[in-house]
Design brief:
mainly alpha
């Protein structure tokens, strides 16, 4: 009787590296190809770790913004926020630097503004300020303060 091969178990960081490499390759063909890659990743990986999903939603928000799919951007930004605690747990010390490279919140503010949902845009600004993502977020929030 043949010995069964054990399934390959990758760490969250290895899965994240695979996601980023695949996205980088797909993105060479434009935001549509990048989005197609991300959609296939979500469909084909039912057990995709939530920490990796946060990064995938961030990449999705960027691709959808380039395609001007503002409702899709807003959904991706919410997916990013929902999986942010898992991203922090998965990346540990690398979380802060990874968070600072994301654009989901900026794209989310842009999308909410395009959709006329200024209160939602303000909430995203407040969330970014709570995450200590930089003083420019206070300026963004102040520019939308009229919507309060």
């Amino acid at each position: 009787m043949a010995k069964r091969n054990e399934p390959v178990r990758k760490s969250v960081k290895e899965i994240l590296e695979d996601l980023l490499a695949g996205h980088r390759e797909a993105a060479f063909n434009g935001p549509g190809a990048a989005l197609k890659y991300l959609n296939r990743t979500f469909e084909g990986q039912q057990s995709l770790p939530n920490g990796v999903k946060a990064v995938a939603f961030d990449l999705m928000a960027e691709a959808k913004a380039q395609l001007q799919d503002w409702e899709g951007v807003a959904e991706a930004a919410q997916g990013f926020l929902a999986n942010l605690p898992a991203m922090e747990e998965a990346l540990g010390h690398g979380f802060r630097s990874a968070l600072e490279t994301t654009t989901a919140l900026e794209r989310g503010v842009q999308a909410q503004s395009e959709l006329g949902n200024f209160h939602a845009a303000l909430e995203l600004c407040d969330r970014a300020i709570d995450l200590k993502l930089g003083a420019h977020w206070e300026a963004k929030r102040d520019s939308l303060d009229w919507a309060r």
